[in-house]
Design goal:
It is a single chain. By secondary structure, this protein is mainly beta. The chain is 0% helix and 52% strand. The strands form two sheets. Strands 2, 4, 5, 6, 9, 10 and 11 form a seven-stranded mixed β-sheet that branches. A four-stranded antiparallel β-sheet has the order 1-3-8-7, with no helix packed on it. Strand 4 and strand 5 form a beta hairpin. The chain is globular. The N and C termini lie far apart (40 Å). The relative contact order is 0.32.
Length: 112
């Protein structure tokens, strides 16, 4: 069974940074691409970023390009999302995913 546990969310001011982590278990992590999605209050799920199993290629939605960086440590079964220059519109619950499995999410709130 796939288990994904996100952490690292919090309340920050605009322009600040956060680093999200997602600890994975229950599958061969190093063989699977991983994704991050988010859900803002009152809105649907929105894909944010993803990367291949070996981390060789990373992908981002336009609104986060140049501010967010996705990475992974296959030795630790962990995927990260470094978020810099955060904006109020980045406020959402962030989820990591593998295939159709998702974690419980971590809240990110950007507010002054």
């Amino acid at each position: 069974q796939v288990y994904l546990v996100e952490s690292g969310g919090g309340l920050v001011q605009p322009g600040e940074s956060l680093r999200l982590s997602c600890q994975a278990s229950g599958f061969t992590f190093s063989r699977h691409a991983m994704s991050w999605v988010r859900q803002a209050p009152g809105k649907g799920l929105e894909w944010v970023s993803g990367l291949y199993s070996d981390g060789s290629d990373q992908f981002y939605r336009d609104s986060v390009k140049g501010r967010f960086t996705v990475s992974r440590d296959n030795a630790k079964n962990t995927v990260y999302l470094q978020m810099n220059s955060l904006k109020p519109e980045d406020t959402a619950v962030y989820y990591c995913g593998q295939g159709s499995s998702w974690g419980q999410g971590t809240q990110v709130t950007v507010s002054s």
